[in-house]
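Page 37, continued from 36.
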């Protein structure tokens, strides 16, 4: 994984340069990835943010119910025009923060796909280098690295499918913003 992959990831920062032909580097990268990625990193903070999202969404629902009841029964504290402007402003403010969290979580989930792609490229490179390598010891090292990268890619895919970053109770997806 190095600078040559950075052009494929315009949103993300350049990945670190790691020699993925060395099995020890792959084992180290795997351990770091497991700890720092997505839903494994700061799980308590993510639950807290999800609870904030639920509270924010509850406030939006409460505000909408208040507006409906106000219009239905004519109970207003301020004029009708001021109430509409304030309701729209509150809705825009709250929906902005909800949308921001959805986009951030979606980008984290999408970042996993970019990493899987880079790991698969490195795996194929190791397989190609092993097929033309004359030195048997180096060839064995490359094949071991390829096997480790294959296992890492499978683990990343499985983790992304089973344990994605969620927003409230839903998998983070851009379609949530429109619903």
């Amino acid at each position: 994984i190095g600078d040559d992959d950075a052009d494929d990831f315009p949103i993300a920062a350049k990945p670190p340069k790691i020699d993925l032909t060395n099995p020890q580097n792959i084992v180290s990268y795997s351990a770091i990835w497991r700890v720092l990625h997505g839903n494994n990193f700061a799980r308590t903070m993510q639950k807290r943010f999800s609870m904030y999202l639920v509270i924010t969404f509850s406030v939006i629902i409460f505000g909408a119910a208040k507006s409906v009841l106000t219009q239905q029964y004519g109970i207003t504290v301020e004029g009708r025009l001021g109430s509409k402007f304030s309701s729209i402003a509150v809705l825009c403010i709250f929906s902005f923060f909800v949308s921001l969290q959805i986009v951030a979580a979606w980008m984290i989930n999408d970042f996993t796909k970019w990493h899987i792609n880079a790991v698969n490229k490195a795996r194929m490179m190791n397989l190609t280098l092993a097929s033309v390598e004359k030195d048997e010891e180096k060839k064995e090292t490359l094949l071991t690295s390829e096997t480790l990268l294959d296992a890492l890619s499978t683990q990343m895919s499985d983790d992304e499918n089973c344990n994605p970053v969620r927003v409230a109770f839903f998998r983070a997806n851009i379609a949530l913003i429109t619903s």
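Strands lie at 166-167, 170-171. Flag for discussion at group meeting. The chain has a mean pLDDT of 76.
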